[in-house]
Design goal:
single chain, mainly beta, Fructose-1,6-Bisphosphatase, Chain A, domain 1, six-stranded antiparallel beta sheet, 6 strands, 8% helix, flat
Length: 66
């Protein structure tokens, strides 16, 4: 069984908003195992929000379960 791991990174999602000085941008990182996302993290620093998700474990916002 082949196990492929891919890390997806978007350093600035919402580039236009970032350039305009708006707070509607984020950074994104995700681990994809065998073509399926397993762990993801989205950071919105201007809004002080950090979303994390782990497959089978749910989603959290700033460490609090959603």
């Amino acid at each position: 069984m082949e196990r492929s791991l891919c890390i997806v990174i978007d350093p600035i999602d919402g580039t236009k908003e970032f350039i305009k000085g708006k707070n509607e941008w984020s950074t994104f990182i995700c681990a994809v195992q065998n073509g399926k996302p397993t762990i993801a993290s989205i950071l919105m620093p201007d809004k002080h929000q950090h979303f994390t998700a782990i497959k089978g474990k749910g989603v959290r916002l700033n460490r609090a379960a959603l």
